[in-house]
User: Fold this.
Amino acid sequence: MSQQEKVRLYTLSTCSHCKATKKFLDECKVEYSFTDVDLIQGEEREAILEDVRKFNPQCTFPTIIIGDKVIIGFREDEIRKALKL
Amino acid sequence: MKPEELHEMLRKAQETKGYFFNKDMERVMDLMAALLLNKERYGYMCCPCRLSSGNREKDKDIICPCLYRTPDVEEYGSCYCNLYVSYEWNEDKIPHKYVPERRPAEKKFL
Assistant:
């Protein structure tokens, strides 16, 4: 099995698409790191939003970074393709 | 209020307007709980799929049901969260496309 691309998520703890993304990755046994941006306040949140905007200027959630690919929203086909699932 | 109570209250009010809850009840009840959590956090039921500024005036377009629900249900058969959908969407008579964010970027987190 080839080495898995690094997966990073920017999510909201309340968002249905974000939850669906995490569930899908869990079911596929894909390791990922995530930040629930709504649970972070103040300057720390601002700094994270700046990072999100670099990947996704519209700053919507989930913003999914797989290797050098950015996927906006829970688009299962695109995630599968990026991870070769 | 419990998610089930909110669901019943909204269902009655919204179905008469032609907006139906997604037939995926697990997802709907999860969103009901998220709306109640946001009410507790911010004092209003901000859209669970968007980041709240914490300011009611700035968030007024994304208080559920959001300002974008009408055009999104008209165009895609579903709101951004897949919470409110059309009859046709629930009956699988139209494709379930991913609903893109309609809210203008400049309105975000002002």
Remarks:
- Chain A touches chain B through 18 residues (CB under 8 Å).
- The first strand of chain A starts at residue 7 and ends at 11.
- The helical segments of chain A are 16-27, 42-55, 76-83.
